[in-house]
Design a protein that fits this description.
69% helix; single chain; 4 helices
């Protein structure tokens, strides 16, 4: 497969910004430009701290769900509040994935 080169002009600031975004996404500058040009969304990779936060939130959601299930028969109101909290955490986790 033959390769061809495409050049485009941008300022030094724009080039640094493109490089930085490509590095955050974990791909090369050319791959980042190609993906952007074709309209594909380029998603940044999560840092170690973000992954740790995500894992912690998953653990909290599971724990609150278990607590809610434990109190279903004894105190339905408390179980409902705990279930709502677990649902809020689940929504944040879903937004975190995007």
């Amino acid at each position: 497969m033959k390769r061809t080169y495409i050049k485009f002009r941008c300022s030094i600031y724009e080039k640094k910004l493109l490089k930085k975004k490509a590095k955050r996404a974990g791909i090369s500058l050319s791959e980042y430009c190609r993906s952007s040009a074709f309209g594909n969304s380029v998603i940044e990779r999560l840092t170690k701290e973000q992954l740790e936060c995500y894992r912690t939130l998953v653990k909290y959601k599971n724990n609150f769900t278990s607590i809610g299930n434990m109190f279903k028969k004894r105190n339905p109101r408390l179980a409902n509040e705990v279930a709502q909290l677990a649902e809020q955490i689940r929504k944040h986790l879903y937004n975190f994935k995007k």
